[in-house]
Q: What sequence folds into this?
């Protein structure tokens, strides 16, 4: 029987947790414009904002060209976190379950914030690697978005 696993990473940013979270909550559709090399398109299929039940379509290139549909599973305003679950797409050929969650919180000691990304997944078979490439990608996006937010 397959096992549900998780990988996570913390990314230090200079922006506040509120500013980073607000971008994902209200302006996430701008990501393909900012990171056009890897994120080719984004659109809402159901709903028109990041709220539970909204369904999004992504075209991207992280480990090769791919598409997916993901629904917003949870939005936690108090903890500045959003959880997404892939419901259709290329990634499900490798993982029978794939959920992504991020949480932003202020780094009280050092200023700025820390963004925690985690992926919960179930491999389609034991030969499939853990999604480290996706974790590395969202970490790079966080750093790039932080730089973008500093000037916008």
A:
């Amino acid at each position: 029987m397959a096992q549900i696993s998780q990988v996570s990473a913390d990314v230090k940013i200079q922006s506040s947790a509120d500013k980073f979270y607000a971008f994902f909550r209200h302006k996430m559709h701008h990501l393909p414009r900012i990171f056009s090399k890897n994120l080719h398109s984004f659109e809402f299929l159901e709903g028109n904002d990041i709220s539970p039940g909204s369904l999004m379509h992504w075209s991207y290139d992280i480990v090769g060209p791919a598409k997916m549909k993901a629904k917003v599973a949870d939005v936690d305003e108090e903890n500045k976190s959003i959880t997404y679950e892939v419901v259709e797409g290329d990634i499900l050929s490798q993982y029978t379950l794939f959920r992504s969650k991020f949480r932003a919180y202020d780094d009280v000691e050092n200023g700025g914030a820390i963004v925690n990304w985690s992926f919960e997944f179930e491999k389609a078979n034991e030969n499939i690697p853990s999604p480290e490439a996706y974790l590395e990608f969202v970490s790079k996006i966080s750093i790039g978005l932080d730089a973008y937010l500093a000037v916008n």
Remarks:
- DSSP finds three helices and seven strands in the chain.
- Residues 132-151 form the longest helix (20 residues).
- The chain has one domain: 4-151.
- The helical segments are 17-26, 31-34, 132-151.
